[in-house]
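seq as requested:
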Amino acid sequence: MSTIQTSSYRRQRDHFEPQDTDPQEQRRLRGLLEQIDYSAFVANREVLGQMLPKVDAATFQRLAILAATARGKWAAEGLRQSESGAPSTPDQIARLTSARTAYEELAEAYEGLRHMVERGYVAIR
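C-alpha cells:
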C-alpha cells in the first residue's frame, strides 16, 4: 500500500492490484476497475461542479490570502508567547492550537480545491 504525504497528514492509497497471473483475467479486472474509477470521476465532476460553480483565479487568490493570513497569525501567536520566556499557559496553548488548526484547514482547503481543478472535477471560469 502506498502513502501520499499532504501538507499535514498522510493518506493511504489502497487501490487493489491483482495478483492473478492469468493475463486475460488481469485485463478483465483492470477494465472493471477503470469503469469504477470513471464512475467516481463522473460523480465528483457532477457533484463538485454544482457545489462550486464559480471558481476562478480570484477564488484561489482569496483562499491563498486567507491561508497565508492564518499562517501569519499562528506564527505571531507563537512568537508572542515566547516573549515572556515563561512556559505557555493552557489558555495560550489553546490559542496557539486554534491558530494552527485554522491555518492547516485553510491550507488543506486550498490544496483540495487545486486537486479538484487538476482532476477536472471543477472547471476554472
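The longest helix spans residues 90-119.
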